[in-house]
Model the fold of this input.
Amino acid sequence: MKRLVTVVTGAGTGTGAATCRRLAEEGHDVVVGYAEDADAAEEAAEGVRRSGARALCVRADTSVSADVERLFTSAEKQLGPVTGLVNNGLLNNAGLSGPSAGLADTDPADLRRFVEANLLGPLLCSRRAARVMTPRGNGVIVNVIPCAATPDAPAHHTMTNAAVEALTLTLAEEVGPGIRVNAVEQGKTEEVAAAIAWLMSPDASYVRGTVIRGTGGR
Done:
């Protein structure tokens, strides 16, 4: 029986690291994708290995096509065909700092970086995953949305979060039903990791184009 191989971006800390551990407990080998902190990524990988699964750390800027290609190629060469993807490499979730000022006062370079990390990254990773999953007719993609797209959130947060939710819905229609695409809004770390693991499991075989909102009703 072939093992499950899941790529998790933004996996060094927080939700990403918790997701790696939870997926390992569920029988996944895990590719720990990270942007900057190699030590944190290796610690997350050790957590995977302690659960009896295989782990591979790959540094990648998911907004760069060549890095995304290397991320998936490394996974396929060292662990096997990729069966799952968790797009968690967003600015809020990857431990990076996004612009906090209002839209009118935010530097355009910061806005561009925010859009590249929070929207282009999931787009490129999902595109690469779909290329390997579509011929097989199966696979799972889960997008992690940092927070709800609400009127009181900064404009750049609302814009990219809403875009990732729209990506989830449209991609689910495009690549389904064989490939399941869903999303989880950020909430309590371990609960988000559990929700991701459930969406990746056969128990969620009929769940597609769904956003699980773990925000405590906010």
